[in-house]
Amino acid sequence: MSVTPQPTSPKVHISTHPLVLSKLTQLRLHDLPNKEFREGIKAIGWVHVMAHTLHASRHQPGVDIRTQLGYTVPDLQSPIAPFTGHTVPLRIGLSPILRAGTGLVDGALELFPDATVLHLGLFRDKVTLQAIEYYSKLPGEVTADLVFLLDPMIATGGTALAALTMLTEWGLTQNQIKMVSVVGSAQGVKHIAEEFPDVEIFIGAVDDELTEKGYISPGLGDAGDRLFNTHHK
């Protein structure tokens, strides 16, 4: 049974946006073509990243874009006349959890084409359901002021917790990390909110049940298989 409970934390934002709810309904369908599944995942990621950006940047002081771009001319030039402009001086990082998290990257890159992409390779052991790290592309020093952690599914929460630990050990504070997801289990989302209370989570829906094998119910199935057409026939 699918639910949309009150967030267990003020940092958990469950979407009520009509576009997200419509796309999510499509994504749950077992026979949705892979191409449409990829497009739906991308769209929801775009909405979540945009929603956070609009909210968080309301009070962010802007800087003269000439400073950011290294311009030496007095003003920028429109087709009509010179003008001055502003930009938000944040270095953005996108951190997809391989492999399903890559399905959220393209939508985020449309908003932040110059973002640093920080891949984290984690998989869940089928027996213990524990997260196992196999890859990390984090530079030697922190290269972002704000990082979006991208993973379509929050099941037990173990993989997300491992990724959050990697990012905080890298040097980010919890307030610098925003998690973007599509569907989570109530158990998994609660687990993250308790362990990392200052990390904001933007998610499309939270479902009540988690199966014995660690799948969200009704969920979406295996998001990685559906994104990359690697279903077991």
Automatic annotation (TrEMBL):
Enzyme class at the top of the EC tree: transferase
GO MF terms held by the record: GTP binding; uracil phosphoribosyltransferase activity
EC number(s) stated in the UniProt entry for this protein: 2.4.2.9
Annotated keywords: Allosteric enzyme, Glycosyltransferase, GTP-binding, Nucleotide-binding, Transferase
Pathway the protein takes part in: Pyrimidine metabolism; UMP biosynthesis via salvage pathway; UMP from uracil: step 1/1
Segments forming domain Phosphoribosyltransferase: 15-230
Cofactors demanded by this protein: Mg(2+)
InterPro entries in the record: PRTase-like, PRTase_dom, UPRTase/APRTase
Family: Belongs to the UPRTase family.
Protein name: uracil phosphoribosyltransferase
Organism the protein comes from: Saitozyma podzolica
Lineage: Eukaryota, Fungi, Dikarya, Basidiomycota, Agaricomycotina
